[in-house]
Design a protein that fits this description.
Elements lengths: L16 H11 L5 H10 L1 H10 L9 H13 L2 H10 L2 E4 L21 E4 L4 H5 L2 E6 L5 H16 L3 E4 L5 H11 L4 E5 L12 H10 L1 E4 L9 H14 L2 E5 L6 H11 L3 E5 L9 H8 L3 E2 L3 H8 L21 H9 L8 H8 L3 H13 L3 E4 L2 E4 L1 H8 L6
Parallel strand pairs: 3-4, 3-7, 4-5, 5-6, 7-8, 8-9
Antiparallel strand pairs: 1-2, 2-6, 10-11
């Protein structure tokens, strides 16, 4: 009698977590919270075995969807995926492994089953001090300039810039970081061995050499519109804060910002012209509570450690700024033309004549006023100083 050998259990290994999660990355779509719940309740290997064996559907899915998942499971080959990854210089990082960034656990059941990582740096360490820079694909020159400038400023201060590798703001952010000799991470919505968009093949290859290219999808997998949207939650969760540089009302970068808000991360926006449709989404984000930023120092003041403050934004210190408040009050009461008496000046300054006289002689010694008989007049120096005062003061 011929005995048919029982198929080998692909998850019967000393570390079943690795092949099981590689298997699930091929079967489950990124961000599948139902699948994530199965993994939480049954474990990665237990979920993988149920999908591979077929049988009754697990809770939360229809028979039709379960049949589709089981069909994908029948074609999945974790050993082949791991071999293809090794050939491409790619490794698989998953929850519980030393390189896994714990902040991704904030996504709950929607966290990735694992991440495919291309590059030599340690993802967990880089993610600890990182900021997301995202924005419009069809950005303006202003948007590209701001993205590159912010990225270079963050790089100079030792921060990692995370973006999506796309055209427009993403590409400018990556290039600005690399130009500043900094560290950058590209989060892709496809297999990390096949750069997308094609026009950024050279850029993504350079990022892989100098930084990190990561993604949830196994080698060779292709991007879809829904995968781009779901990918954005990883960018938001991985970083301390998200900066949006140019975004229309319907923009994927706003999905990243909203995800950051839900996760309790800092959300920031770079303002644009009030009439620009490409900044309308950013302006709506700012109205909803995001923080307006204009440079890297302001970003770091929000996401950095205590004491990493942006410089005080003030105009130049003028000589009259150094006067005591009472003296400035008297000086402000003197008209540009004419030579009023000390009594008239005191009345306009809401003080006493004696105090006005004392302050006028003080101002005379400093070269601000001069006496003309019983009256007092501004000097040329005081007139120049007055013209230097900002509008509205």
């Amino acid at each position: 009698m011929t005995v048919t050998p029982r198929p080998r259990d692909p998850f019967d290994t000393p570390d079943p977590e690795l092949p099981a999660r590689v298997f699930l990355s091929r079967v489950l779509e990124p961000g599948d919270a139902t699948g994530g719940r199965w993994v939480r309740e049954l474990g990665a290997a237990g979920t993988a075995r149920r999908l591979l064996d077929g049988g009754p559907p697990l809770p939360g899915v229809s028979h039709k969807r379960w049949s589709g998942l089981c069909a994908r499971a029948a074609r999945a080959d974790p050993e082949h995926d791991l071999a293809a990854a090794r050939d491409a210089g790619v490794r698989f990082v998953y929850p519980g492994s030393p390189e896994w960034p714990a902040q991704l656990d904030d996504l709950g059941d929607a966290r990735p089953t694992g991440l495919w990582v291309r590059g030599r740096a340690a993802l967990r360490m880089w993610a600890l001090r990182s900021v997301a820079l995202v924005g419009a694909r069809a950005c303006t020159e202003y948007g590209a300039h701001m993205a590159a400038t912010l990225a270079a400023g963050l790089a100079e201060r030792g921060w990692v810039v995370v973006s999506g590798g796309a055209y427009g703001v993403d590409g400018a952010a990556h290039r600005g970081t690399l130009a500043g000799g900094g560290a950058t991470v590209a989060v892709l919505a496809c297999g990390v061995d096949r750069p997308y968009p094609r026009g950024h093949t050279e850029l993504i290859t350079r990022i892989a050499h100098q930084g990190l290219v990561i993604g949830e999808l196994p080698p060779g997998d292709h991007p879809t519109p829904s995968r781009f949207i779901v990918r954005n939650r990883v960018i938001a969760a991985l970083t301390r804060g998200t900066v949006v540089v140019e975004a229309a009302h319907r923009s994927g970068s706003l999905v990243t910002a909203r995800a950051a808000q839900r996760l309790g991360r800092h959300t920031m926006g770079v303002p644009g012209p009030a009439t620009s449709a490409r900044s309308a989404g950013v302006h709506a984000l700012l109205r909803d509570g995001a923080t307006l930023i204009t440079d890297a120092a302001e970003i770091i003041e929000l996401v950095g450690d205590i004491g990493e403050l942006a410089p005080d934004r003030r105009g130049p210190v003028l000589p009259r700024d150094l006067l005591e408040p009472e003296a400035r009050q008297i000086l402000a009461a003197l008209p540009a033309r004419g030579a009023p008496t000390a009594t008239a000046i005191a009345r306009d300054a809401r003080t006493t004549p004696d105090d006005a006289i004392a302050r006028l002689y003080e101002l005379r010694s400093l070269g601000y006023v001069e006496r003309h008989g019983d009256g007092w007049k501004l000097t040329r120096q005081a007139m120049i100083s007055a013209r230097a005062v900002p509008d509205g003061c």
